[in-house]
Structure formats: C-alpha cells, structure tokens
Amino acid sequence: MATIKELARLAEVSTTTVSNVLNGKPGAASETKAKEIFALAKQLSYTPNVLAKNLKQKKSNSIGIITEDLTVFNAPEIVDGIDAYCEEHGYEIILANMRLFKRYNNDFTDTPQHQSLLDAMVRNMMAKQVEGLVYVGYHCREIHCLPSLLSVPLVYAYCYPQNMLYPSVLYDDEKAAYDVTCSLVQKGHRNIGILCGPITSFHSQCRLRGVQKALFDNAVLYNAAAVLYGDWTRNSGYESAKKLKELGCTAIFSFNDLMASGLYEWFSEQGLEVGTDISLFGFDNRDISRGYTHKISTVELPLNEIGRKSAELVLQQMAGKPLPAKQTLLPCNILERNSVVNLN
User: Fold this and answer.
1) How many other CB atoms are there within 10 angstroms of residue 316's CB atom?
2) Which residues contact 244 (CB under 8 A, 6 or more apart)?
3) CA dist., res. 274 & res. 257, Å (int)
4) What tens digit of pLDDT does each residue of 210-223 get?
5) Of 101, 100, 114, nearest to 148 (Cα)?
6) pLDDT tens digits, 253-270
7) How many CA within 13 A on the CB side of residue 201?
8) Phi and psi for 163 in degrees, rounded to 5?
9) pLDDT over threshold 70, residue 148
10) Which DSSP category does 247 fall into?
11) Among 13, 36, 115, 177, which one is least packed by beta carbons within 10 Å?
C-alpha cells in the first residue's frame, strides 16, 4: 500500500503539498499537479493513515461502546442503533465486551472484579482517543461500579448509574405494563394472574406498579394472591401455571416471554388452549413468542431506539449542549396477537 511519502516522491512535491491536496485545501497546488496527485493516489490505492491523522488532530471521530455482555438478547440491537446513529453523523464505533453474563450468569452484584474490568476497558478506550462512551447493560438495574477516571461524555443504555451521575436511556416498563393490563380489562378480564420476575428486579417493580395503577384506574380489585414471582426462565412459568389456573384466572400477564412459554406448555399439556380457554400476555417480543399456533401477545422493546438515543445524547454532550433530563424513558410497542380472548 502506498504511503504519502511515495506519492510525494512520484509527484515531485513535498508531503505537505500532497496532504493539503488530498484534504481539499484551496491553493495547495496547481490544477494540473493536483490532478496528477489524485491520479497517483487512485492508481496506487492510497489509503490515509487515519490513526496518525487523529493523533495529530487530537480528534478520533469515534465513540466507544462497552457492553456488559454482547451475547444477551438486548445488546446487539442496541449496539446496532448506536452504530447507525454514529454512521449518520460521521462517527465510527469501537466496541468492547465485558462478558459479564458469560462470567457470572444472572448474578448482578457489582464486585471489585467488575470495577477492575470496567476501569481497564475505559483506560483502553481513552488510549484509543474515543470522544464519548455508551455503556450497555445486559439487565436493567442500578449500576454501582462507575468509571474511576473519565474525561469524555458517558451515557448508560438499558441500565442507570448510581445517584444518576450520568444520563441514561431506558424503556418505560411501567407504562407498557399499564397498557397491557388496561387492554386485558377492556376485553372483560377481571381475574388476571401476574407472573413477575424476581421480587428485587427493577423490571418486576416497575411493571407491577403499572399493573396496580391500571387495575385501580379501571376499578378492578388487586388480588395479591394471584401475583407470583418467577426467575425469568421457561421452567418458572411452567411451575407457576397450575396455581394461577386454580385461582380461576382468565388471563395471565407474564413479565417475560420465556416464562410465558412455560405457561403455554403447561396449559397445552392439560388440554387447554391458549387464546380460547386462557388468555396469555408476555413481554420482550422474543422469537419464542411467535413459535406457537396462537402467537403470544407481547411487548416489543425499543432496543434500536435506545441505542440511537444514547448515541444522540453522547454527541449532544460532546457539542456542549445541555441535556433535557438525566433519565430518558422511551415507549414500548404493545403487540396484541391471538393468545388473548375477548370475553365481551
């Protein structure tokens, strides 16, 4: 691959002249000489040394992304949203993956090991001269491990930092659960079973608030006995189904699609048809929700939009513009399919 020195030697001009011509600086050379330089660059497939140029200008036109785990279902779409927005605005991304799910599974406890790993990745990003950072969580929660040394704007996506020290972008769990519950009530359901995730989960708490508010607004009595807690797995849905059926629930709102699939499986084994004998609503719009005869109604998360908004907020800070709020909540999309019966 040709270098700028080779182009200068062949064109019989200085490297400064070649650089100025290729960067479009007016008056850098005569029209004839400029055409000769461009022709040589094309002929020899000259590619500028972007890293050297960035070091000289102290500007990398790059945004760093630190994902807690790129293999978790939410991360790829969020990263794609960040990448798309950056591309549209002339920035590249540099990606680092902490692999927390692979390392620690569903243990969300921030540890000294987390802190050490995060600080090492931030230092690596700073060495690459990124101009901003987006931190992508693999589970929505409060993050206690924050960068020890940081000199660029930072936005949290799909999670939020302790004490709201940095801006974050999440989706509106509570409003989505409110809308789902209202939809079930409007279809005549009064005895609605709720299958939450773990009681300590941010998702469980927000979604349960949405359910309670919807029941209150629709004058439907809240039945605490029909509120069960699972662990987000298909098996916990399967194990919860019998009790919810015994409670006489006509509809079940599962706080994720994996648990909803376990519920579906149990009802099928009992000879009961989801969408006819029992109504079922999930959350997350995972592929599994579409894999049944009666596709499971669910909530589509705005993952790509979370990525785009996070990138927008980073670039906004880089430009010195004020942020509208420390936390941004984006709306979800309610997908009603044929797993819900209209009792009216």
Assistant:
1) 17
2) 193, 195, 226, 228, 252, 263
3) 14
4) 999 999 999 999 99
5) 114
6) 999 999 999 999 999 999
7) 20
8) 60, 15
9) yes
10) T
11) 115
| Residue whose pair of structure tokens reads 């908004």 in the numeric block | 309
The radius of gyration of the chain from alpha carbons, rounded to an integer in Å, stands at 27
Q: What is the pLDDT of residue 34?
A: 80
- The confidence score (pLDDT) of residue 112 equals 83
Kindly report whether the global pTM for this prediction surpasses the value 0.90. no
Q: What contacts 293, CB < 8 A, 6 or more positions away? A: none
Q: Tell me how crowded residue 268 is: count the other CB atoms within 10 A of its CB.
A: 14
CA-CA distance, 180 to 206, in Å (whole number)? 13
Residue 123 tokens read as 């230092």
- Apex 287 CA angle, 282 and 288, nearest 5: 60
Q: Print the SS3 string covering 116-135.
A: HHHHHHHHHHHHCCCCCEEE
Residue type, 147: P
Task: Provide the strand spans (E) within the chain.
Answer: 62-67, 92-97, 133-136, 142-143, 154-157, 160-161, 168-171, 192-196, 227-229, 251-254, 279-281, 298-300, 327-330, 333-335
Count how many Cα atoms sit within 13 Å of the Cα of residue 108 in the half-sphere of its side chain. 13
Please say whether the beta carbons of 66 and 35 come within 8 A: no
